[in-house]
Amino acid sequence: MKKTLRALVPVLLLLAVTGCDRFEPRGGEPLVPMPDHVPKGPVYASADEVVAALERAGLPCEVIRQPGTSTADCTTEIGGTGVENQIQVLNTTDFSRDEVGDSIDSWRSGGTTIVAAGNWFVRVLPNQEARYSQRIAEALGAVVLPPPYPLPDIPEEPAYATVGALADALEGAGLCVGRKEVDEETAYCGTRLPKGDPSCPRSSLLKRYDSVRERDDALRLHIRNGLVPAEIVTAGRWTAVYCDPAEARRAADALGGALVHHEAGSGPAG
Q: CATH top-level class for 163-262?
């Protein structure tokens, strides 16, 4: 019989325990499905395979705890900082994709950022700064799922088919100078800000996403990363990140988007 997954209370998340000990039944509650933008692969048979994948990606990870084949905690180094990876692999015979997603939701709801793909996920420590999780996700071909910070109501329109169309709209409003399209999903628009604080870039970052859930997680990652105070203009499946609040307000008014603002350090701890 398949098990219904649920993570234990946050204090137990710090313990090195077996895969079965990390979950408890949820009774008849419906599962929280895996987010659509989480890749369906790679699929691994054991935590050792995840460790091996990190090493192939140039991040050798020394195993410090391994209570079972499905779990392992290992340490690596990212930018001179020691990083611990708490790995959980769930057997595809016993657990469905949505059961894995339900377990991940438990961790996220407790204020934890998770790296996920296929049938596995990783809790990366330090967890409060998402850049470590992002590096691990990049190495493993996974995505980063931040805690579900509350967001304001975001309009469905305007919706742009491409990031280029978003840049066109800003250009037409006189809010994009010297645009640079990086790929189909990313572009930069130069702003008219005077030279000043070097920590405040004189361009806005434009992104387009495949789904609203992916957009929302991107917004939450900006919050988690402490890349703010900053203003993010958003609607549909796109975001435009600004350093200057006045410039962001002009963009929101011109495009009809919502403003997301977050003061650094005000998010829940993880």
A: alpha beta
